[in-house]
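User: My instructor asked us to take a sequence, write out its structure as tokens, and then describe one feature of it. I'm not sure where to start. Here is the sequence I was given:
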Amino acid sequence: MSVPRRLHLNTNVTGTGRHPAGWRTLDNPKSIVDLGFFTEIARIAERGKLDAVFLSDALALRGHAHGPAQSLEPTVLLTALAGVTQQVGLIATASTTFNDPFNLARRFASVDHLSTGRVAWNAVTTYDPDAAANFSMNLPLDKDARYARAGEFVDVVLKLWDSWEDDALIADRASGRYADPARVHAIAHRGAYFQVDGPLNLPRSPQGRPVLVQAGGSEAGVALAARHADAVFTAQTTFDGAQAFYRDIKARAVTQGRDLDHLLVLPGLYPVIGGTLAEARERKAEMDALLDRSSELNKFARALGLTASDLQLDAPLPYELIDKGNSTDVSRGFIRATVQLARSENLTVRDLLDRNPGAHRMAVGTPETIADDIERWFTGRAADGFNLNADVFPSASRTSSITSCRYCSARAFSAATTKAPRCASTTACHGHRAAMRKRRTRPAP
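Assistant: Let's start with the prediction itself. The structure tokens for your sequence are:
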């Protein structure tokens, strides 16, 4: 019997929220370094039956003159949040370019133990030259090198997580035997980027290993996700484009010998919610009125690999300049999603700036209409769920996590669609659990 599909909803925490001016509406505008702020977000997500709290990360400081930049280290923050929650999943972003596999594997396995099996790693490659300058690199790695390193990095981390079999930790007081050496394996990895003996210096984590998420929409990123990821975080701005991406990455997973249902596709979604459509639009307009438009235009241009002078507010995107761009310090997934959205609706630069600069898809409406939208994408196999972006935390998370989830549950897309008792990205992720059953007692290569 096939397992019914489940809708997966995470809350994606970037700064104090997705809207650049949202921090100006907070009682404590310095909440970016306040544990209580993040605790409230996590508890709201747990109360709303969301799968997980998903923490973004940045390794260089920019834009701090106009708004809060990400500052708390994600795995440290996850450890704190594990202590104030019981069931919600905990996802942290960490770079394969600016970390070491052993230390990263150990950090995430440690937090998985401390959270009793609720942790996931969002693997990113990081193309930012400012980040490279913080890690003793004059220039960032080129794209091919970043993804070659990332592929080997993930291989090493998975080997380390698998280096302890189930029941290797005995802790028998009567016999004095603490661990079974026959069930703990060196990995003896020798590759182009890493040489790691192993094994990991702590036992297998409660869920077998932390869940692996991969963020990105480039060709190399999609290939990496199809090979390894339990879930892929992607920017998809059109329904047809999302369906095509969904079919493509699932097919790629099958060519890797995987079950297509064992890889979840989770696009970003930015809902702005009100009791009525007019209230939702008013909420957005009030925050938009606080924006520094010139700053937003400059940021948008940089993200496209252009300068602000290349963009005219009331004209379409300069597609010919974008097509000619060969910069390695931009997100090709972001550019692809933005161009798809602009072409599909014939949007101007001003229109795109009004739509979260073309990044994650924005939906302005009521809980009912947002649930309609989520249902259409889920049942149409354009997504297995969403990473929800709040305009500003915690007020928007109260609305988006609880009311939208309530409406989604009421629709009953499939049996127990959103009512996972624990993180559906971890303990309820069928692909992840199936993979764990296969590898738990297999010696590491």
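For the description part of your assignment, you could build on this observation: Confidence is low (pLDDT under 50) at residues 412-445. Try explaining in your own words what that tells you about the chain.
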